[in-house]
Amino acid sequence: MELLVVSLAHTPGSRDVDVLARIRLIADAVRNAPGMVESRFYRGRGKAPYYLALTTWDDEESWQRALERHNPGQLLLEHCADLLTAPPEQWLMHYLWGYSRSTATTTMAAAHLATLSPAQADATQQEWLRRLRQQSLQSTLSFSFLARGTHEPPKTTPATPTESQDTSSASSGILLNLLSWASDSEREEFYAHPGYQAIYKMVNSAGKMHVLPLELM
Questions:
Q1: Mean pLDDT calculated for residue range 169-193
Q2: Short-list 42, 191, 209, CA closest to 112
Q3: Which domain holds residue 86?
Q4: Of 85, 90, 60, 61, nearest to 73 (Cα)?
Q5: Burial 22-52 (b: 16+ CB within 10 A, else e)
Q6: In terms of Cα–Cα distance, which of 150, 154, 203, 202 is closest to 173?
Q7: How far, CA to CA in Å, does 111 sit from each of 7, 131, 137, 196, 213?
Q8: Domain total for the chain?
Q9: What does residue 130 show for φ and ψ, rounded to 5 degrees?
């Protein structure tokens, strides 16, 4: 089963040019990793600068082999330590659902990251999936997916392939919904849709959801 690794780094606004250059070097290095299926790197569009990396691996074995040289979280620590306002966060996840409108070009995106108890996550996941599958809700999206997984503890020393990491999503309470649009008007139409409003209210009543506005690098 494919493994999605989600890496988030917060940076100071005063050094954005330096940060962007180093993030691009990390992106180039990761894209050449054996076992890599796809990688997407985003810049934050919020007030506080941040970067989000999504890397998909063939399976967990491929990820374990990549830890020493191609772990995005570790690369951020090694190459951007002086430009981070906090240690990078990283989640290990599995895909639950995906959608792509091939005729639409993504110009903006948002990551909806929800933290719930395992008991709440099961019911929330099912309702979230039901809403996302609505044709009227999908029609305004260019690309989207829903994934579930676990938070990886921050690392301050180099990772090794022998480290034991639980990537099972069975008992986790972390859900990530990446949403992408081709225009501002489609994004606003999506957010105004009753289906999205229901998702937002449901998740925030069951736990906590952070919305990270993004643009594709």
A1: 91
A2: 209
A3: 3-216
A4: 90
A5: bbeebbeebeebebbeebbbbbbeeeebbbb
A6: 150
A7: 12, 17, 16, 14, 7
A8: 1
A9: -60, -40
Rounded Cα distance, 174 and 209, in Å: 10
Q: What is the dihedral of CA 106, 109, 114, 118, to 10 degrees?
A: 10
- pLDDT, position 155: 58
For the record, the structure tokens of 137 come out as 């809700």
SS3 71: coil
Q: Looking at residue 26, which CATH number applies to its domain?
A: 3.30.70.100
The CA–CA distances, whole Å, from 92 to 5, 140, 174 equal 5, 28, 10
Q: What pTM value is reported for the model?
A: 0.89
User: Are 155 and 74 in contact, with CB atoms under 8 Å apart?
Assistant: yes
* Phi, psi values for residue 190, rounded to 5°: -65, -50
**Which has the minimum average pLDDT: 69-78, 132-141, 169-178?**
169-178
Strand partners, 55: 5, 39
Q: Which two tokens stand for residue 14?
A: 């005063």
The tens digit of pLDDT for each residue in 113-170 reads: 999 998 899 999 999 999 999 999 999 999 999 999 999 876 544 444 434 444 454 4
* The two three-digit tokens of residue 162, written as one number: 């022998």
Copy the structure tokens of residue 207: 């736990």
